[in-house]
Amino acid sequence: MWDYTDKVIDHFLKPRNVGEIENPDGIGEVGSLACGDALRLTFKLDKDGRIKNAKFKTFGCASAIATSSVLTEMIKGMTLEEAAKVTNKDIAEYLGGLPEQKMHCSVMGREALEAAIENYRSGGTKKHELEGQVVCTCFGVTKNEIERVIRENDLTTVEQVTNYCKAGGGCGGCHGQIEQIIETLQGEKAHAVHPAPARKPVKLTNIQKIQLIQQTINEQIRPALRADGGDIELVDVEGNKVIVAFRGMCAQCKMAEFTIKDVVEARLREFVSDRLFVEEQKDSAEQPHLHREK
Amino acid sequence: MKTIYLDNNATTKVADEVFEEMKPYLTELYGNPSSMHTFGGQVTRKIREARENVAALLGCDSYEIFFTSGGTESDNAAINGTLAAIPQRRTVITTRVEHPAVLATCRELKNHGYTVVELGVDGNGLLDLDEFRRSINDDTALVSIMHANNETGVLFPVNEIARIAKEKDIIFHTDAVQAIGKIPINLARTPIDLLSLSGHKLHAPKGIGVLYVRKGTRISPFMFGGHQEAGRRPGTENVPGIIALGKACELAGRNIEEENNRVKKLRDKLEDKILASCPDCRLNGDKQHRLPNTSNISFEFIEGEAILLMLDRYGICASSGSACTSGSLEPSHVLRAMGVPFTAAHGSVRFSLSRYNTEEEIDFVIEKMPPIVNRLRELSPFVTR
User: Fold this and answer.
1) pLDDT of A287
2) Interface contact B381-A38, CB threshold 8 A
3) Number of domains in chain A
4) I need a labelling partner for B272 at 20 to 30 A (CA). Which of A20, A191, B35, B176 fits?
5) What is the reported pTM?
């Protein structure tokens, strides 16, 4: 069971400001049924330009409902300039914190608020649009959004990014890209979290060598290829020649030659032996286990 | 507040009789059955009795029963142990709707060069046996297909699957964790080679399970140590757990008729009334081929975790296939495999009953459900009125 604060439970069971304002000054709609949560926020301004009233409708779990409810309370009385400065962190803190995996609910609140302000400033014409290049196609999350949650919440891992904005929570195909974004923004800090020391034994028997090659493929190479929808299989080892077959996206990839030298061979040399070289087995692409029955 | 426990596919109450039976072995009779003294040795006889009780429920011989720590260990041991014993074959057939104990174990095998065939299911959660037949080839080492689905209660025809596998001389394992104690099984009449069961799903405590291994089935141990369980599952026996499971199996054999009559009637009443009183909801899983205790219902436009927490306020315990309840972002892999739309999967609730539920409890849930659904729909932006 989730460890929700009393304030989250209170706002879930007794949500404030449920509904929709008629003729609102701003409407913000984010999320979708498919994503598992969605929020429609409406507000009305008073004559001094402060938020007089705000209402919400939310589809989602307890924390999604609680963050929406608390958001409407927080922004009442604020000018739009003040409201625009509200971060997802502020919303989560107001609730006394949220479980890490539920932080995306607070981000949804902030997004809806921004969308509503944008809608007002554009004179009611502009609806929420995705800005920038879409990185996570499963949940429709853009690079801008990912960069923003990383900066505002000082995130250093893909898992955290997924918790905060859902990116990477579906097929996992974008994990590599998210890692790159984290690396670019966090630089040294991100490196410090993931030390990957290469270990290379001095003298290997044939069996040890083959096992180490398999292990290196499993741990060091496959995750990177899977991130791009591909896969790799170890076919055979003849002396220092490592024969591999590419699967999935990698099988048709024009960059396969590059991947062999730059990724597979480099990694195997780093972790197993400097003398290894890699060749691709082409003809087995259709019949993955042909080699065993020969 | 009274607890109304409708989450028996997650875990069950330890039956009073079971607790009484195991209690002395937690307190006075703490001896090690392997010891040479009478104090320890007297436990051996109780373990033998327990093993016979389990065998009687399954319709097999007691030497085919191996005690483990639970369903997950049994599944891992069955899959990895079989493959280690048949190294020349490298394909495993399973389904997309298995419990993670099987599915994750099989998917891990892909990292070791195995081919894993995951059979799909139709909209009612049923398998296509012709597709299963076609998927078998000379490289197939093992078929692992569950007996009853934990989320929907849908039953797979394991007797027929076992016969098909036998014809082709392929080992068949079934994860029967949800089925045992709820529906009858007779291993004397069906050529299942390996079967997993878990104590805490049939009113024994957590931490005890069984792997049934048909006589003559080749399987390598994947743990090494002492001589216990014929060397296949070393480690000092979980004596209180084993004795509890023996008692629970004895009770299950006696109560299986009640499960299929009284419990089934309560389940049907709960299901029918909810489907009739709440608009925009649907039943997930085949109505006929199903466990007598399970009902999985989707409520459109609202989210499962919110429903569960609302039910929780009344002491009602259920579970959901929504993304939010698991901490992952995607809803139940079982419902998705059935093609249940995301919208309905997010709002799914599973009720799973036991013989300890009363009609009064079911009436209480029937009364509380519509206002909860209405309340959450009032909050939902997808409901316009």
Assistant:
1) 45
2) yes
3) 3
4) B176
5) 0.81
